[in-house]
Amino acid sequence: MKLYKYIFPIFFFSFSVANAQKKWTLQECIHYAFEHNLHIKQSRLEKTNQENNLKTAKKERIPSVSATVSNMASFGQNQDVFGNHRRNDNFNNSVNIGANITLYNGSRLEKQIQKSQYEVEASAYDLERIKSDISLQIAQQYLNILLNREVENINKSAYENAQKVYEKAEITTRVGTTAQTVLAEANASMAREYQNMKSAEVNTKNALFSLALLLQLEDYKNFDVAGWDVAENVEKTDFSVSEILEKAYSWHPQIKGAEARIKASEMQTKIANTGFLPSITASAGVGTFYFNSFNNDGGRNFGQQYKDNFGQQIGLTVNIPIFNKGITKIQVEQAKINEDIAKNNLQQQKQELLQNIQKAEYTAENNFEVYKSAVEAEKSSKLALDFMEKSYQAGRSSIYDLNTARNNYVNAQGSAAQAKYNYLYQVKLLEFYAKGAIN
């Protein structure tokens, strides 16, 4: 028992540490959002609601059957045609079962089923669109974390180099080969780099926090992401807007959803036109009743009356619309307007998708040019820093010149990293439009 008291806390602590150290991959983040995001849950519920509407429409083809049981007791005086008054206390009971079915209504039921199917299809595409939007938001935040982490490493390296310079200046100042101002500047430079490193760490934590909020995680403080193998030097990827657009039109949910709504609106126009047509309904029923006058004790018993009074009914009803104040005509015109609205919405969605792809391709082109120039600036700054370090060690340059060269190199590294990740996001965005998935 005492051993259990020690083992269980150790096991629990180990489990907690392992859980806290979990690093999320991009696909794990996206999958988690698909399962827990409230917008996705809302859209999934709306899709289920449309599926229930479809089930209801299909069941309208089935005959409806109902049963009624009626009981009524009457007490009091009654007057006959001669003006005589007498007691009329009685009890009535009746039982009826009836069924009816629509035989013809201009195929309205079938058209309603088809419309409901298109609405289910549209709601499914709405769900996929929300998933797509959230996937892109997660990918952008994920890349932002990796960018901040790379900048953090750059600033950490700069701080370590500043430490080495300070340690060397401390030794040379102590032995008298350099002035006290050199040590002071080295110390100030190290403090600046330490501040930059801490700021970069905070930026990384803020980026992690933003992604955790997007995923709606409760334990956001222990959230972390796995690394992503990003090439040090990124090559340019060529894209064709027309080819990407053609592929996007074939799968993108905002296009497919708009197309499904056009079909639903066209079907609604056909449903409205059925209001001009006659409808035929068939009905059938069976029933019996029991009557007992309390003033007459010699009547037939309950079972005998139910048997004698049993009857059947069958009917056929034809409803021919003649005039309904022009309401059906207005409903048809309104349905056609909604049809035009749905078609216009499809064109708007296509235009929006075209502009998004054009913008992504244009931004990718510009970002790659910025990336190339940033890489060249980084190389030049590194070369200048190497020469400045040698010059400083030889005593021909001051520590101020060395710090300036080092700052220029750190800034160039940060700019190159920023340009690289900006370009990578646009590449992933274009790949998403073309393939419908984020790799």
UniProtKB/TrEMBL annotation:
Q: In which broad location class does this protein mainly occur, judging by the first location in its UniProt entry? A: membrane
Gene3D superfamilies attached here? Outer membrane efflux proteins (OEP) (1.20.1600.10)
Task: Please give the coiled-coil regions recorded for this protein.
Answer: 332-363
Instruction: Give one Pfam family, short name only.
Output: OEP
InterPro entries named among the record's database cross-references: OMP_efflux (IPR003423), TolC-like (IPR051906)
Which UniProt keyword terms apply here? Cell outer membrane, Coiled coil, Membrane, Signal, Transmembrane, Transmembrane beta strand, Transport
Highest rank taxon of the organism:
Bacteria
Q: GO CC terms for this protein?
A: cell outer membrane; efflux pump complex
Q: Which GO terms describe its molecular function?
A: efflux transmembrane transporter activity; porin activity
What residue stretch is flagged as signal peptide? 1-20
Q: Record's SUPFAM superfamilies? A: Outer membrane efflux proteins (OEP) (SSF56954)
Q: Where in the cell is it found?
A: Cell outer membrane
The Swiss-Prot or TrEMBL record describes its family as follows: Belongs to the outer membrane factor (OMF) (TC 1.B.17) family.
**Do you know which PANTHER family this protein is assigned to?**
OUTER MEMBRANE PROTEIN TOLC
Report the protein name in the record: Outer membrane protein tolC
Give the organism, scientific name.
Answer: Candidatus Ornithobacterium hominis
Q: Which gene encodes it?
A: tolC
